Request: fold
Amino acid sequence: MSQTMYDYFAQLLGYVFSVLALLIVGNALFITLRDNRRARKLREQGMEYIGRLVTADGTQAYELTRSNLLGSSRKADVRIRHCRDIRRRHLLLDYREDLDAFVLKGIGNASFDAPSADGIGAFLDGNLNNTFSIGGMTLRLELYGSGREHYEVLHSDPEDDEYDSLFN
Amino acid sequence: MKAGGSKRKGTGSRLQMLFVILFQLLGMALLVLKRIPVPTGLWLTAVCLPVVTYGLNRLPKKLRLDKTLLNMVLFLCSVSIILLFGVTRNTVPLDYMQAIFALIGIVAMFVVFSFMKYFREWGKLSVLLFVVSVLALIAPRFTGSVNGAYNWIKLRIGGSVLTLQPSEFVKQALILILAYCFSGEKWSLRILGIAAAVIFCGILAIQGDFGALLLYFVVTLAMYYASTGNLLVTGAGIGCGLAAAVGAYFLSENVRNRVMIWLDPWSHYNDKGYQLVQSLIAIASGGLFGMGLGSGSPRVVPLYDTDFVFSSICEQLGLVFALAVMAVYFVIVMRGMSISVNSRTPFYCLAALGESVLIGAQAMLIIGGNVQLLPLTGVTLPFVASGGSSLVASFCGIGILEAAASINRCDDMADKKRQKERKGGAI
Reply:
């Protein structure tokens, strides 16, 4: 092939290469934005609220997902501020499907009003008689789900591996 | 479209694969037209390039690879191979070697991918990586200099000498070490991570490899800030970096020269500024759509295949194509950040973030250097610049990103399954 002919082809393909490059990057951008949207949607669905913790006076409520870190830290899912007795990472309130209950882990200075003998406190939905206290605050659980009679809050070992892995 | 109107999954990445293969076929066809009789290496590359791209896109779904990311990397690799085939006239067959290094890189990527996905003992590995990295960084002092610089390890295999740039691989090691150290809440570990980065930077400063040093610094700061959100310490780090840069300016003649060339390359056209001036002329002469692959005078620019490969792209394929290449880097970084945000564990989150920052910063530094926006730093354009160490190390980095993406997808699948079960009445 003559040099002139080659130059002509090369010049022509220069336009085609530019179009292809733009198509590749445009397509990649479209897929990335779509994937981001899907991931955000999935995260939001994963953040489905199961219930909420309400202060005894009813002035403040903290919504609960399946796994909740309670504390005063910025990283806490349920951030309780302006309470000196609440530590930065105070405790973990985790919903366990196998037990069908909320498990209270790494408990510091939380206590139930009416704990049972084995340390398991029955926690009736919205029942003011069975509130629990963390730090200087008294909280009660309200559940959004219908058809559920009650939830239990179980004490568990603070040295639990799951709790450690959350903080490490 | 499937019955029911839902879109078929993976259509986007399949379309992208088709565009990449079309680019490869047209590019290689043009090169075949130019080089008659066609050398065997060119034939082999022309066949292998689309076959490898297709093969990687048809890998089992079980691997859960991020094919969009992979296709973008393969596109950049194809640009590199096609460009080098089009412009090189060296006695050393750079073009063939680039294709071979790309294949080695793809194998390395899968090794890193498998390792990252299934290995869990990051603490022990970090210690090992640190020791090996320090040894690798100081090894050039003992194997001799290449072009006066102690950045390369010379290996004699048979009659030929193979050179290896350890700082390229140590970048990846640093990201893993920092991801481990910064993913915990322990301050002692964080300090150890920073100490490791400082030691690496110190060795690079002694060797005068300021480009790699700058990248290590940027990656360390970005990962530290992402893990702690501590503006004070990060700001102090930036301050220390600026002070070190000023110190380097007064202490190193090389740094002073680079700044001087950057500020006014035209006054030093005949000596120190020759590279940059030729680079700017090449970019301008390319116009919007380039002079055509293999046309023009790309070899007038010194280091047209390594440090000034972006100028070669502008001259040969035009400004529009060059902007698209820049946009590809932008989307790779965006995708990497997205993988990082969606990661469920701090280790993978930080590793993906570090990798994205590294690719983005590296591309920005060298492109900025080529167009006189920043002083020249001597880092390579990831996946495009000629050179085995850079290419293989960059593929290793993509292996880390792919592993994090794969783990994310597995977790997302598990979440979706759980959600379906819940909707089915489990809760």
